[in-house]
Amino acid sequence: MPSDRGELRGGLRGVVALPARLFWSGPNPRAVRWDLADSDRRRDLYEIALVEGTLEDIRELVNGAKFVRLWDRERRNSLTSGWMVRLRTGIR
Fold first, then answer.
1. Number of domain units in the chain
2. Could you tell me the pTM of the whole model?
3. Residues spanned by the domain of 47
């Protein structure tokens, strides 16, 4: 994880397509898009970036302020909880 939430510079608008190294499932993964204005789709994108991505992928895809607010509200599984602990202890 980046050492500072400010390093997480992902966008909040537009539509994102992920490279095959990050998203490869489904019948046509190259056609899948994530609308960043949709908080559910953004949550899914963040989870993929955190699980499959490199440090640079995380920096480019995840927005720090939105991530903390979104995951604080969701806390939907143990992976999310684990990342929140890392964020709170490792990112100022």
1. 1
2. 0.75
3. 5-86
